From TrEMBL:
Its cofactor is heme. This is Cytochrome p450 2u1. The lineage of its organism: Eukaryota, Metazoa, Spiralia, Lophotrochozoa, Mollusca. The chain crosses the membrane at residues 32-55. It comes from Plakobranchus ocellatus. It holds the Pfam family p450. Gene3D superfamilies: Cytochrome P450 (1.10.630.10). GO terms for biological process: organic acid metabolic process; xenobiotic metabolic process.
Length: 271
């Protein structure tokens, strides 16, 4: 079984100390990393779940489709597990559409450009702080058809297979590349559809940065939301009156206050 993050961090920290090398690996930094990991993961994940419930209240026909798929794959006698993840394309499409339209963290996190870089005629100097605007990408009319409509089908191809467009960036926006003429890593705030091929030619390696909590967040979202929809039908507190369109501004943006009724499904009562 692979070691956990803490064990690997601790081993590397002691290894660096034993060699007498200067390192930022310390107990204090470990505490801070763990705080960020759990705080960021729980806050954004809980907000995503709130947005999902909000959209299901406004689009009950989509909720029915998600439940039907869950019933076909996992049945009603057991809760969905991680082995079911790859079999639930419509479920994931509805989650991805929630992340896109809900815009959970509209400005993501600040990124630091550690080397001078020119992108399409604009120079970003070293040590400049780059703050991405995810809304401008995930609500872009030139990229998404009817971007302000909740439509999970946009993440499915004609065969029903799940697709993930480059402009779907709820977890990250930056790219990294090793320049051919330097050993430094340049952090580039570039959206895939706007990448200049010349930038790629100046790089030995080019890849998309990943949020280290993405895999954990997706697993938690899957287990919680799939079990929720499998067991309960979500209905507005007042029949026929779904919540109004609203959100709370901040670094993490939850929907405005709304009420929901959890109606236990008949199949769950007999399971």
């Amino acid at each position: 079984m692979p070691e956990c993050f803490i064990a690997q961090y601790w081993r590397e920290m002691n290894k660096m100390k034993a060699k007498g090398k200067s390192t930022t690996l310390s107990v204090g930094n470990l505490r801070w990393i763990l705080f960020q990991l759990f705080f960021a993961g729980t806050d954004t994940t809980s907000t995503t779940i709130m947005w999902y419930m909000y959209f299901m209240l406004r689009h009950p026909h989509i909720q029915k489709k998600v439940y039907h798929e869950l019933s076909e794959v996992a049945g009603v006698e057991r809760a969905p597990d991680l082995q079911d993840k790859t079999k639930l394309n419509y479920f994931w499409a509805s989650v991805m559409e929630t992340q896109r339209l809900g815009s959970i963290v509209p400005q993501s996190l600040p990124h630091l450009c550690i080397a001078d870089v020119t992108i399409q005629g604009y120079t970003i100097p070293a040590e400049a702080v780059v703050l991405p605007n995810l809304d401008a990408v995930m609500w872009d009319e030139n990229t998404w058809e009817e971007p302000l409509k909740f439509r999970p089908e946009r993440f499915l191809d004609d065969t029903g297979a799940l697709i993930k467009p480059d402009s779907f960036i709820p977890f990250s926006v930056a790219y990294e590349c090793y320049q051919k003429d330097t050993s430094d890593v340049a952090v580039l705030a570039v959206i895939a559809k706007d990448r200049d091929p010349k930038i790629l030619l100046n790089c030995n390696h080019f890849w998309r940065r990943m949020c280290m909590g993405e895999a954990l967040a997706n697993s938690v979202l899957f287990l919680y939301i799939s079990a929720l929809i499998q067991r309960f039908e979500l209905q507005p507190s007042v029949e026929g009156q779904p919540p109004e369109v609203s959100f709370v501004e901040g670094p993490v943006c939850p929907p405005g206050r709304f009420e929901v009724r959890f109606i236990e499904r008949a199949a769950s009562k007999t399971a």
